[in-house]
Each structure stands twice: as C-alpha cells, then as structure tokens.
C-alpha cells in the first residue's frame, strides 16, 4: 500500500441541545430537571450589573438562575457583551450553558448525555489510510471511543483492539477512552469504508 495516500476527513460534533441540570425546585418541592431557556436575566443597580442564565423546571416552569456575572462594574463589561446579554444571544447563552464544571458546583448534577450529531466532510479523497480531524465547539464529556465507534460503524471492543494493536493512532497521543478535544487527529490504518458514516 502506498503510505503517502490517505483519506482526510474533518468531522464536527454538533451539540443539538444544552446540558440539563438537576437542582431543587421550590414549587415541585424536590430535585427536578431544569433546562436552559437560552435567556439571560440582567439586573443593573447603580453602576453594578448582575447577569444570570435562566433555567426552567421541566415540570412546572419555575426558574433557576445560574449566575454569570455578579456585581460587576458597568465599565468592566464590553458594550458588545452587554448587548449580547440584553438580546439573549443564543451563542453566548450556550457558552455559559456548557460551562459544565462551574454548573456542577452550583447544582446537584449536570446531565451531559445530550443529543448531538456528527457532520463529516471529506477533504482529500484518495486511497489508503484515513485521517480524521475532530472539531467540537462545545465540550460535554463525549468519549472518543463512543464517537469513533459511531462514525466508523465498528463495535467499541473491536475499536479498542485496533487501538491496542496500533491500527488507530491519535495526534496528540491520547487514550481511545479519553474525552474528545478540539483538533484531535485520528489515523485509522487501511479500513474498509463500506459501513462507515464517512461520505
Ligand atoms: Zn418544578
């Protein structure tokens, strides 16, 4: 096989929803699931500004506010960001909704088992090994073996075998069981493309 030839794919992991949080609902009087409303609450008092991201109880619509900015002087926040909070800019809301470590400290649990889809783009169609570059704007703890099994149409145990025998390589070098990170490159040696999601 000619080693200079390879298939190159860019694969994007696209989150289709934000993680839900489990916290106490004062109306339901128990721990319930809250989903992100993609809306901010902005409160300005004198020269200080408070911003929260609003979550809603899945059962009764009560709100739970996740603190974004607390008592920040108006001069310390850019006009642009202030405008994004005021207009409930969705991208800005999602940036905060995916701050999973911060959310974990504020509530009982964060459900990162969210819906996502995989979008692939073939960059250079040739023959030989396959190299995949993974792109993921929002991180939610998705494991590399899970997403690779899905993309390649290979069961997870088989995938782990291939990794152990050096048929699957990653750059930078990480465990196949680690969480995915941006710009990770995965090379799979001489795989049949038949049943994969790669197109
Ligand atoms: Zn409730």
Can you put this structure into words, describing what you see?
- This protein is of the alpha+beta class.
- It has 2 domains: about 5-15 and about 115-190, Structural Genomics Hypothetical 15.5 Kd Protein In mrcA-pckA Intergenic Region, Chain A; about 20-110, no CATH class.
- The protein contains 5 helices and 10 strands; from the N terminus they run E-E-E-E-E-H-H-H-E-E-E-H-H-E-E.
- It has helices spanning about 80-85, 90-95, 100-105, 145-150, 155-165; strands spanning about 5-15, 20-25, 30-45, 50-55, 65-75, 110, 115-125, 130-135, 170, 185-190.
- The radius of gyration is 21 Å and the shape is elongated.
- The chain starts with 5 loop residues before the first strand and ends in an 11-residue tail after the last strand.
- The model has no long low-confidence stretch (mean pLDDT about 90).
- The structure holds zinc ion (ZN).
- Zinc ion binds near residues 32, 59, 60 and 62.
């Amino acid at each position: 096989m000619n080693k200079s030839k390879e298939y190159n794919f860019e694969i994007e992991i696209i989150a289709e929803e934000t993680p839900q949080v489990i916290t106490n609902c004062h109306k339901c009087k128990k721990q319930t699931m809250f989903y992100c409303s993609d809306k901010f609450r902005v409160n300005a008092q004198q020269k200080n500004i408070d911003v929260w991201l609003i979550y809603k109880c899945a059962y009764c619509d009560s709100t739970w506010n996740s603190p974004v900015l607390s008592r920040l002087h108006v001069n310390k926040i850019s006009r642009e960001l202030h405008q994004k909070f005021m207009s409930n800019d969705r991208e800005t809301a999602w940036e905060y909704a995916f701050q999973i470590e911060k959310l974990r400290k504020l509530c009982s649990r964060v459900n990162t088992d969210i819906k996502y889809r995989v979008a692939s783009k073939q960059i250079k169609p040739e023959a030989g090994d396959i190299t995949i570059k993974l792109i993921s704007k929002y991180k939610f703890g998705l494991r590399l073996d899970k997403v690779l099994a899905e993309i390649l149409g290979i069961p997870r145990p088989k995938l782990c075998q291939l990794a152990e025998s050096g048929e699957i390589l990653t750059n930078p070098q990480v465990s196949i069981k680690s969480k995915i990170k941006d710009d990770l490159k995965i090379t799979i040696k001489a795989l049949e493309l038949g049943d994969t999601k790669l197109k």
